[in-house]
Amino acid sequence: MTINFRLPGPTPLPPAVLAAMQREMIPHRGPAFRDLFREILRLAKLVHRTDGDVLIWPGTGSAGWEAAIVNLLSPGDAVLAAVCGNFGDRFAQVGTAFGLDVRRLDVPWGEAITPEALDRALDAHPDVSAVFLTHNETSTGVTNPLPELARSARQHGALVIVDAVSSAGALPLETDAWGLDFVLSGSQKAWMCPPGLMIAAVGARGWEAHARSRFPRFFWDLSAAKRSADQGMTPTTPPLTLLYAYRAALDLIVGEGLEAVWGRHHALGEQTREGVRELGLDLFADPAYASDTVTAFAPPTGVTASALLEVLRRDHGVEAQGGQGHLVDRIVRFGHMGWAHQDDLRDALVALKRASATVSAPPQAGAIPS
Amino acid sequence: MTINFRLPGPTPLPPAVLAAMQREMIPHRGPAFRDLFREILRLAKLVHRTDGDVLIWPGTGSAGWEAAIVNLLSPGDAVLAAVCGNFGDRFAQVGTAFGLDVRRLDVPWGEAITPEALDRALDAHPDVSAVFLTHNETSTGVTNPLPELARSARQHGALVIVDAVSSAGALPLETDAWGLDFVLSGSQKAWMCPPGLMIAAVGARGWEAHARSRFPRFFWDLSAAKRSADQGMTPTTPPLTLLYAYRAALDLIVGEGLEAVWGRHHALGEQTREGVRELGLDLFADPAYASDTVTAFAPPTGVTASALLEVLRRDHGVEAQGGQGHLVDRIVRFGHMGWAHQDDLRDALVALKRASATVSAPPQAGAIPS
Q1: What is the mean pLDDT of each run of 10 residues along chain A (370 residues)?
Q2: pLDDT band at B361, cuts 50/70/90?
Q3: Quick one: how far is CA A34 from the chain centroid?
Q4: Which class would CATH give A15-255?
Q5: Shortest Cα–Cα distance, B217 to chain A (Å)
Q6: ipTM entry
Q7: Per-residue confidence (pLDDT) for residue A365, from 0 to 100
Q8: Do the Cβ atoms of A271 and A307 come closer than 8 Å?
Q9: Which among A3, A188, A239 has the least Cβ separation from residue B237?
Q10: Each residue of B248-305: pLDDT tens digit?
Q11: Of A10, A317, A292, B28, which Cα lies nearest the Cα of A309?
């Protein structure tokens, strides 16, 4: 049975990305590496829509939260964390762990952060240095209205720090035009690579904040990464194989065309939502802010998410995911980002229909329990 | 021309490791991952010779310095950094960056830290909480007498924090028997994997120190990593492809037999040193502490390291490395760790002989400069 890998991360690797990782090691201070790394940074800037800097570390998206905090802020700084799901909540918790004074704007999971709510929260907390935003909340399948939120934050004089883990490379993301100061992501979502890279775009205001920041730091230090990147290098040994993969994935994205990639994801989002609705299942996210990279929905009445997931996996080879936190057994999530195409989602929806019937069917009279 | 990859890291990937990375993504919270990760940890403990914990992050050896500091120490703690080369120096600098009170024991590069010198330094600094030791100093090709140094540190009541980046998996390293409290390494040296994993062994005293440590932390937090590892998981998305590679490499090491691996490296060290001496070139490291994973030597009289390296690369396909810091043009380094065998070093030594002759030859009368 072919696996239909519908986790909202890690996501399937395209054949070209898998093949790229068959390359042997190269000297990481030599010209071949410099050429590779400079081309990666050039392409990554295109996809982030920035003329600023993109920097890369071994890490994950979560490491990006830490890197944003220790590079742009100082102990005791007040920040506003806009939380609409599990990942926004974790970002806020990392702020607290590092001694920030974290104020929270919480909305019910499944809803988006609206610019009006953010305006009100920032009016109530005029002293915050930064706003933590989640572009696409992977745990609920909500895409926040990032351009409007960023505008609100900037109007209030706050830095715009964006978790773009499940949006970068799939959804419109205009680092420069929207005024984003720090945009972090991980390689294993729409970037179509294995987990293991943390990628960050840093704008001019991000660098100004960095110059003022007083956290001790070393591995995530932006200045060291930039000094090296400007010479086509990294401060410590670069994760070569994952960079081979990222180069191949960036080539795929730029080759398809960034607007075409966004369009494909929007079509996948529409297809998935329509398919779920047709089965009579309830979509979890506010439809006005439904994500084009991950769709969450409730299992059939009386059925747990884990029961449905088990049948999807066992009978249909569909690997999907349940909810997080209090949603653990209440929602199922289908990822449709990165190396995802119409056929994959069509098959997943057919499987969902059959699996829903299987788990919903009352036990037959006289049937022998297996 | 086949490349003879003699960098002291990254090192060549065995075919089995390259092949292992052709595997697609798997659910990182599912049973297949738990089986993989538990087996990796079991094998890694064998190779670290510990019944304690081994934990793994996306990262590099340098990240291990930071992880050791933020997990086992507190701001203002006095530590003794034993420095005999560039990597020991950088470890000390990371301590300073994190606000530790770093006392230094420096010996000339090329020499080892002796137990007597460490005893004296610790007698002079009885207040230090920890000693930073470099097991094998990659920048000079020196293996420090770790068991004796660890004993000295413990007798003085100091934690033993060991950079084993270019020793773990190649040189005898007895985490438990030698009383090492934190042993850090990166995947790209004797572990025969691509760069991108940071691996740490933590002993009982390390955990006690961790319980007292007051640094803010998140990504490198030992407790979070252990809580997850005990369930066969990682706190954030694991770098699956690199873990596939590490599993394959650990199988190779355990399959060959750890003592056989140590023996192979010792033979490679002897072969390399003997070959260099036979060419009349000066070995850089104190012969009593010569490393079996990397050999540093001076280029022929009147020749710079970079000139020799260029001919080795251009005419012979040998990728070696120069020195670091003040040694940049004064030494050449051959790595012989991980996926390295007698034939590789024999070929490299033949190339060294020829390249030395090329760079040492006086320009011929009437020759037209190219």
Answers
A1: 94 98 96 98 98 98 98 98 98 98 98 98 98 98 98 98 98 98 98 98 98 98 98 98 98 98 98 98 98 98 97 98 95 98 98 97 61
A2: confident
A3: 28
A4: alpha beta
A5: 7
A6: 0.97
A7: 60
A8: no
A9: A188
A10: 999 999 999 999 999 999 999 999 999 999 999 999 999 999 999 999 999 999 999 9
A11: A317
- Look at residue A55 in the predicted model and tell me its pLDDT: 98
Contact B311, B355 (CB under 8 A): yes
Contacts of B366 (CB under 8 A, 6+ apart): none
**Residue of chain A nearest B215, judged by CA positions:** A98
- Classify domain B4-9+258-359 by CATH architecture: Alpha-Beta Complex (3.90)
What pLDDT score does B367 carry? Answer: 52
* A residues 135-174 lying closer than 8 A (beta carbon) to B: none
**CB within 8 A of B105, min separation 6: which ones?**
B80, B81, B82, B83, B113, B117, B118, B121
Cα-based distances in Å from A32 to A41, A258, B134, B193, B281: 14, 27, 30, 19, 30
At residue B364, the pLDDT reads: 65
* Window 239-298 of A, Cβ < 8 Å to B: 239-242, 245
Q: Where along chain B do its domains lie?
A: 4-9+258-359, 16-255
Task: At B178, give phi and psi (nearest 5°).
Answer: -90, -5
At B256 the pLDDT is 98
pLDDT in tens, B33-48: 999 999 999 999 999 9
Which residues of chain B have a CB within 8 Å of the CB of A238? 195
Both tokens assigned to A342: 């119409």
**Sequence-distant (≥ 6) Cβ neighbours of residue A214 within 8 angstroms:** A74, A75
Residue whose tokens read 């944003």: A68
Q: What is the pLDDT of residue A1?
A: 79
pLDDT at position A175 is 98
Q: Which of A321, A310, A319, A317 is nearest to A356 (CA)?
A: A310
Strands B4-5 and B53-58: unpaired
Q: How many residues does chain A have?
A: 370
pLDDT at position B1 is 79
Cβ neighbors of A305 (< 8 A, separation 6 or more) are: A299, A322, A323, A328, A329, A330, A331, A332
Report the candidate in A266, A264, A334 with the shortest Cα–Cα distance to residue A294.
Answer: A334
pLDDT tier at B11, thresholds 50, 70, 90: very high
CATH for the stretch B16-255: 3.40.640.10
pTM: 0.97
A235 interaction partners in chain B (CB closer than 8 Å): 62
**Lookup: tokens for A29:** 């201070």
Residue B237 distance to chain A (closest CA, Å): 7
SS3 B132: strand
pLDDT in tens, B122-157: 999 999 999 999 999 999 999 999 999 999 999 999
Asked if the C-beta of B10 comes within 8 angstroms of chain A's C-beta atoms, the answer is: yes
Q: Which of A268, A357, A278, A348 is nearest to A313 (CA)?
A: A348
The reply to whether residue A242 touches residue B218, judged by beta carbons under 8 angstroms, is no
